[in-house]
Amino acid sequence: MVKPVSLSDPAFAALREEKRPGESDSDVVLRLIREAKARRKDPLKWLRHREKPATAWEDHERFLEKMRKADRDRPDPWQDA
What we know:
Blueprint: H1 9-18, H2 25-40, H3 45-48, H4 57-73
């Protein structure tokens, strides 16, 4: 069944740019959705993540040291057993 879809001029231009030889508009949309879903399901996606980190490296290091100190200062639960 065919359904008409309205696209803005920039969206239509982007669709045309993604189109490969022999692909229909429907094929392009389905391929792009399939690729987007595959990226979301990638278990190693976080390894390939290239955006700016949420915190500065120095802040991260300070936080880790704070957690290590808390672990060192925590009483040993096996000591009383």
